[in-house]
From TrEMBL:
Cofactor: [4Fe-4S] cluster; pyridoxal 5'-phosphate
Catalytic activity: L-lysine = D-beta-lysine
Highest taxon listed in the record's lineage: Bacteria
Annotated source species: Thioploca ingrica
MF GO annotations: 4 iron, 4 sulfur cluster binding; isomerase activity; metal ion binding
Protein name stated in the entry: L-lysine 2,3-aminomutase
Amino acid sequence: MITEMLTRWQTTPADWQHELRQAIRDPMQLLQLLDLSPSQLAQPLVLKPGFALRVPRSYVARMRKGDPDDPLLRQVLPVTEEQRQLPTFNLDPTGDKLAEKVPNLLAKYSGRVLLIVTGACAIHCRYCFRQHYNYSATSSLLAAVEFIRADSSIGEVILSGGDPLTWTDNRLAELFHQLAQIPHLQRLRLHTRLPIVLPQRVTHELLNGLTQTRLQPIMVVHTNHANEIDESVGYGLQRLVAAGVTVLNQSVLLRGVNDNAAHLINLSEMLFNYRVLPYYLHRLDRVQGSTHFEVSKAAALHLLEQMRIALPGYLVPRLVQEVAGMAYKQPIL
Ligand SMILES: *Cc1c(COP(=O)(O)O)cnc(C)c1O
Ligand code: SF4
């Protein structure tokens, strides 16, 4: 069945770059595509010039038409609730800027560092904890690569952003090559939402780049709801796994999107249909503009309990929250 799909669907770099440029940026156009009118929304739309609507068309195609509460729509539609301010919600909830040792490199945890390779994303998730991040003036990774070279305790590099897969395959391959020349590095991890929101991104060239480096490739994708995984997403995930990439998923627990045990259980099962293991279920990082997505700790623990009852242990994600200054992401207890 896989070979049949392979011949049926060959994707080229031009395809995903075209799709990226064609992303919907106008809320009214998005509503129109979904047969919705603004009066059907529980909340009025809001314009957010600094972090405007952005959503790829193939992701829109996975939304239910005529449903203002669709879990995918809720993740991307800017509504007035975002203007609500609370003192506990701020611009940099995870203390990222303090952890930036040299431009574009965050060092928080032992043995691994995170590279902010870009501020660009294919989609703008309304709850994104880096939506106000003050990206470095330079996009150069020179100092970052030198930092890694000089510290032999670093065994793993995590490419993040923004979304590292907005880079072209050539540019990524060049970076992989540079990193592979650092003898103490063992693992190369990518944190990305592109294989989910723009599945054409999983090109042959990307698979080659990831598997032709001596570094062990890991990809942590970001899915919050089983409706995000259609046949083409599943096919991309399967190809990554078949190529030898360890693929894990992280989700953010979001009110009105996935704060439902049946949905979370379904997501774990669906991921594993494509051999992807659930890794983290994050409690929301308290970033300004996201108050309406928060799920209480008690509700989160209750959901986790229901997942534990229904699923084998390996399909239960770790429920965590990032606390600035701590040595690892904190389990919710
Ligand atoms: C989340 C994060 C990591 C990765 O943590 P793991 O627990 O290994 O997944 C690394 N660096 C930074 C700065 C992070 O925010
Ligand atoms: S894809 Fe990730 S980094 Fe980009 S907006 Fe969404 S949550 Fe933020």
